[in-house]
Specification:
213 residues
Length: 213
Amino acid sequence: MRRSDPAQPEQAAPPAEGGLEAISAVLLAGGRSSRMGRDKASLPFRGSTLLEWQADKLRRLGVRDLMLSGCRRDLPGARLIPDELPGRGPLSGMHACFQRADHPHCLVLSVDAPLVPARALLALAGAHRSSEAAATLLAHGGKWEPLMGIYRRELFRPMEELLQGGNTAVRRLLDQVGFQTLDWPGDEALFLNCNAPEDYRRLQALANDPPGM
């Protein structure tokens, strides 16, 4: 597990032992889907859709406070949270959701990475729980994933400062507040982001013959 030098965040109670009951979840389902040519969240996957698959995974892990950012349709048991500063990417969605979170820690997950294992998310929560980091991100093969992480809720304040200043990069926030990473040793294919039709075709093939999850 790698650690950068985090700024000292406000202290908040750590997530409860066990599952993710004491963590709010932000499922990022926005974006223009310009490369895909259609709404990614509604793409069929394993008998449901990418949106439903990710939401069900989070519910099985114990998430009770599920927020959808950029979603174009309702999902039972989830809250649709509109951006306060629209058109500025995932950081804007995180900013809006964090302000409305029921818990002091927020799991961020994109809708287009459905193969991320549930047990990796549980391990992520454990790593975050045992630290005072502002954020804990999943990493693999030397690459860390800003949209597969657990963040402290109060980070919506520096997010707003960045967004107001025109800087919309999640990585800029992480450079500012510091973070740690949890290296996951699973197959690299588990972190596939479905951004274009060729990615979706590969994802469908992997769904029929999944790597070790």
